[in-house]
Structures are given as C-alpha cells and as structure tokens.
Amino acid sequence: MKMLIGFEVHQQLNTDRKMYCDSPTNYQDAPPNTNVCPICTGMPGSKPMPPNERAVNAAIEIALLFGCKVITNEPIYIQRKHYDYPDLPSGYQRTSLPVGVNGELQGVRIREVHMEEDPGQYDPNLGTVDYNRSGVPLVEIVTEPDMHSPEEARKFLRQLVRVLEYSGKVRPEAGGAMRTDTNISLEGGGRVEVKNINSVKGAYRAIKFEIIRQKSKLERGESVTRETRAFLESQKITVSMRVKELEEDYRYIPDPDIFPLIIDKARVEAIRASMVEPPYLREQRLVKQYGIDSTAASVIVSERGLVDLFEAVAKEIDPKLAATWFRTKLKKVLNYMKLRAADVRFTPEHIVGLLQMVDNCEITPEQGELVLRQLVKHPSDPRKILQELGLEGINPEELRAAINGVVRANPDAVRDYQAGKEEALHFLAGKVMKLTHGRADARKIIELLRAKIMEK
Ligand SMILES: [Zn+2]
Asked: Least CB-packed of 116, 188, 308, 330 within 10 Å?
C-alpha cells in the first residue's frame, strides 16, 4: 500500500537569551517563573524587542546545512499564530515566514526552515504554569512527505537530528529536546498528523501504529478522516485530539510590533564561510582522506564528539588502526557505560598513547581494551593505568630479543617453515610466548617471526 510520511521537526536554538526579550533561556534548572519579563509573559502593553540576532543566524546556518535557499532581500514577516492555552499568555505564538526553502537531506525534500518561539510549560495536574521556557527560540524544519516506510522515516529523522547536533546551533540535550510532528497518509485515506513525539524511537512507533490503524480502517471500507492525533509515549498508541484546524483557525497576521526581517546576501555568505561541515560530507571525506572503510566512517561520524576525537588521533597514528579501535572497542565501551564521547574527559593524547602501545606490540589488544575501559572512567596516562591495573606490557626490545633467540635455537623448525610447513611457525610462536610469559600478542609474534625468517 502506498504511503506518504513527512515531518515537522522543532528544536530549541542554542542561545542564552530568548527570541524577543533579554530573559535568559535556562528553564531547566531555574526556579519556576524566574527567567521571565513582561515581554515573555505577555503583559498588556509590553512590546517585543527585535528578533535575537544569534537565533536568526543559527536558523540561517541550519537552513544552509540542509541545502536550502535562504530568503534574502525581501521581508520575512514574523506572524502571530493564535490559539488559547494556559502556556501561551499572549494568546498567540510568533512564527516566522520561511528563512530558507527547497533544501534536501537523504533524498527527502526540505520544504522550509523557519523560526518559532517556545510556549511555557503547563502542568494540567497541578494547574501551574512555568513561563521560563516561554519565548525560547525554536527552529522548525518542515519536510515534504517523501518517506514511504517507518524504517525510512526513522533513518531520515536520525540523520536530521545528527545534522542539527553537528551544527552546534541547537541545545546540547539534542535528541531529548527534539520535538516532532509527523504526517502519515495512506493511499485512499486522509492525511493524519501526529503530535507530541519527543524522540526518534517515538516517531517510529507512532508511524507504525498509525499505519496499522489506518490500514485496518481502509480494509474494512471505512474512511480515514483528516485529523490531528496525539502520541502517547507510555502506551505507544495515538489518540484523536481534534479534527485538524484549517489554516484560518489560527488567524495568522503579521505581528504589527515587529519589523519584518530582511537578510542580506553578505550575511548569508559570511555564515556559509564559517559553518560546520555536515556529517554526510564529513563521512565521505574521512573515507578519502584516511583510507578507512565507509562502515567505520559512518559509525565514527555518528557523533560529533567521536569524530572530532578521531580526527585528532588519526593525525598522530595509523588512521586505520584508530578507525578499527573507534568503531569497535571505543564505541563498545561508551555504549556499555551509556556515555557519549563528548562526556568523557580523555584527550586525543591518551588514545594515541594507548594505540601506540598496541601498535608497538607492548600490550595485547585485550589488555588495551582493559586500559581503555579505565581511561573512559578515569582519564590519565595509559601507561600509568597499565601499571595500576597490574598489567605488565612487554617492551619491543624484549620481544625482538625473544624472537631472535627462538629463531636461532630452532633451525629445524625454521627450515620446515621455509619448506612450506605453516605449523612450524606456530611451534616457534609457542616458544616465544613461553619465553615472554604470554605478555605479547600472538598475532604480532607470528607477524614478527615471519618477517624475521624472511630476512634470512
Ligand atoms: Zn522575557
């Protein structure tokens, strides 16, 4: 059955002041209603300040990251969108006309990027409202309904969140602060919008639920009406909210208190020149520049903190070795501890130090992983950690001496190997292992033995 899925994604911009006033944007830690002023609480007679420049620049950068055309040299009106709810003291939410249009991400068309302001937070159980969040700048990204399955939609949304996170222009609690509406329509049914989705996983579940619900209605010969539904995260279902408002229900009007925004070309070009590299381009560059495979590149690029660290490390050590460690061991340790690379205080030097020990065969990869685990918990010099863990590495000189000794003492085995008997090499490796008390990596011993015999 043919289906069309689209998104409207909201994310808070990372500014320290609100959109139309000077109140701080901290609404998480501040006591209720302390970061407020007459403007963001909609007091009669209060007038908004001009739009926060940083927020506008952030929206422009985000539009550029999605390949949008930024609207320049023509007025971008700030509109009032009217509705009544306790979290909206003025009775309207300010929402701009598009800052950018006609972008694209992963084959999905981005219809527009515009700015909005967040409402306050109403608690229907207590009947209280906290206006600290009221007026926090938001960016909204609207896609065309270009996705055709829940999986495709999830993949797209993940990538979109990643691009936003990369931009550094949205609040760092990224995934958590993302809010999205999604619209789903099946062939022969009306377009249903689902609100209240707060995560990529939630979006995936909501879409899956909706498809099943709509499909069974259509199969029974019932009609799927155009409506707005809410996603109930805890129950993983959607419930009807209201029949979809028509545009005129919001009574949009340009805000008479705010001059329309006019963005000139020079401003856009300055932002373009200094903006971050989007993750999909960075992934391609990693493959080319460091010669790593695209699977590793994709894992490494999945997190800005991880890829920044990788690039710092790859400058100092074999990028392929670094890529393998990042993709497998480091990612595993971080996942296990539920950490992101950005949360960990280790430095590129720490990782380089560790990988050098592995590369020089001073420690085995297994020992390296134990050091890495400790490094994530308590960053310090990896050599010191090695001692603290009571793990004794082997120094390259000692290993070389052991190999030379074993080759000299076992001419028969060496001859056997030269005659093509592979198992002779394992016999020799066993001798080296015994001599070094199992402290050296078997694979590395084989490699060194082979090299040693070749030079004879
Ligand atoms: Zn304020």
From this structure: 188
Q: Render pLDDT for 412-421 as a digit per residue (tens, 0 to 9).
A: 999 999 888 8
pLDDT at 174 over 50: no
Q: Record the pTM.
A: 0.76
The position carrying tokens 């011993």 is 445
Dihedral, 335, 341, 342, 348 alpha carbons, nearest 10? 160
Orientation angle between helical segments 348-359 and 365-377, nearest 10 degrees:
170
260 Cα–ligand 1 center, Å = 20
Strands 253-254 and 108-117 turn out to be unpaired
- What's the gap in Å between 38 CA and the centre of ligand 1? 6
- End-to-end CA distance of the chain, in Å? 69
Tokens 């959109």 label which residue? 19
Instruction: Give residue-wise pLDDT tens across range 79-114.
Output: 999 988 899 999 999 999 999 999 999 899 999 999
d(C-alpha 294, C-alpha 332), whole Å: 18
CA distances from 81 to 71, 93, 310 (A): 21, 5, 45
CA distances to 19, 199, 208, 409 from 133, rounded to whole Å, are 11, 19, 31, 77
Cα 412 to middle of ligand 1, angstroms:
86
Radius of gyration of the chain (CA): 29
Copy the structure tokens of residue 315.
């400058």
Q: Does residue 192 sit in helix, strand or coil?
A: strand
φ, ψ at 80 (rounded to 5°): -100, 125
